Amino acid sequence: MRKQLLVLAVILGFSGLALGQPVGFTGDSEFSEEFTGGESFELGADFEVTPDREVPVFLELNVSNDEFEVPEEAFSVGVEGEKCGFMDEAYICDLGEFEQGEYEASLNIDSATNLRAETYDFELGLLSRVGLGSETASENAEANVPTNVPVGQSDVTVEASEDSSVDVTELDFVGVDHSDEFVGGIEVGVDEGVEASGTVRIGFDEFDVSGLDTDTLEVRYYNDSTGEWEGLASEAGDDYVEAEVDHFSVYAAFAQEHTPSTVGPSDPSESVEDESEVNESEEDPEPEPEPEPEPEPEPEDEDQEDTDEEEGVDLGEPEVPEDADAQGLTGQAAATASSYWYVFILLATAGFAYLRREDILDLLGRE
């Protein structure tokens, strides 16, 4: 998925240091064609791969006219349904990787319906690159003096054995298969025959590592002899991954796709044990039992209450237990207070009735 998206980065530019040209055409690569607009045709070219390993191959198609510059919209170029990119006034088509042998490339070309009726010249170029990039930088390095060369989000520190020029390209895409997801890359070249070592730092942003496990970030270099990516001891930061290198060529950062981990421990018994330990450690101290309330006394007979009052029985103050609730009466204290007010109301009612009785007798002339 990421590789397919990064192929579009070819549109942004094409540059890079040649690692030699292990491919070449075996037939004509130039011809002319007359168009009036709206035509479609196929353009084929034979090429050969000479190394005894797989190499990436790109086709570069230039279209020209003697009188004017041909715009990108004049033609649509594709390979097996995949549209080619356009940069530096040329269509760039990624053909894939090829082993040693002879092959034929076939391009599908559609001309725009409003294309000016003219004769157009087509010229094919064959390229073998590990990666493509648009950001480049160059510096002159003094012998045995570390020289830092920043480019895009990345940079390289070079210490050369002799005075040398250093050319660096930040890669947007690598055309060689790899098992993990491509994050970014850098291609470094020094003068031929000059020994050099240093540090390669590949920068990235959130988009570059979206959906990837950043703990698996690793810098690898492309071994041109074997056609394989080889990992290096790497150190990652928040927005970079770097490695010490003993030579300079093509380096790239890769990471594995992020795999969501399962929630909880793998062994259910461990979860139960851990949970019990937490509960034991966090368990509140056992509260002291509250005293059981004493049973409420049976209500006294009203006649008996009247008799007690008439005989001057001292009801006394209700006793409140020491552990009574400060916000209100509880238990026996509440029952005692209730009985006290109950007797008081009965006595008040009896007194009122007695007074009313005296009034009634006065009205009747105390008969």
List the main descriptive attributes of the protein structure presented here.
367 residues; alpha+beta; Immunoglobulin-like; Chondroitinase Ac, Chain A, domain 3; 3 domains; six-stranded antiparallel sheet; five-stranded antiparallel sheet; 23 strands; disordered N terminus
Q: Could you say which overall geometry the principal axes of the C-alpha atoms support? A: elongated
The CATH class of the largest domain is Mainly Beta
Please report which band the strand proportion falls in: under 5%, 5-15%, 15-25%, 25-35%, 35-45% or over 45%.
35-45%
**Whole-number mean pLDDT:** 75
| Straight-line distance between termini | 119 Å
Can you tell me the CATH architecture of the largest domain? Sandwich
Overall SS class:
alpha+beta
The structural domain count equals 3
Strand order of the biggest β-sheet: 12-15-17-23-19-20
How much helicity do the residues have? 10-25%
The total of beta strands comes to: 23
Query: Count of DSSP helices?
Result: 4
Largest sheet: 6 strands, antiparallel
Oligomeric state of this protein: single chain
The H-and-E topology, N to C, reads as HEEEEEEEEEEEEEEEEEEEEEEEHHH
Runs in which pLDDT lies below 50 for 5 or more consecutive residues are 1-20, 270-278, 307-318, 323-336
Indicate the CATH topology of the largest domain.
Chondroitinase Ac, Chain A, domain 3
Q: For the CA atoms, what is the radius of gyration? A: 48 Å
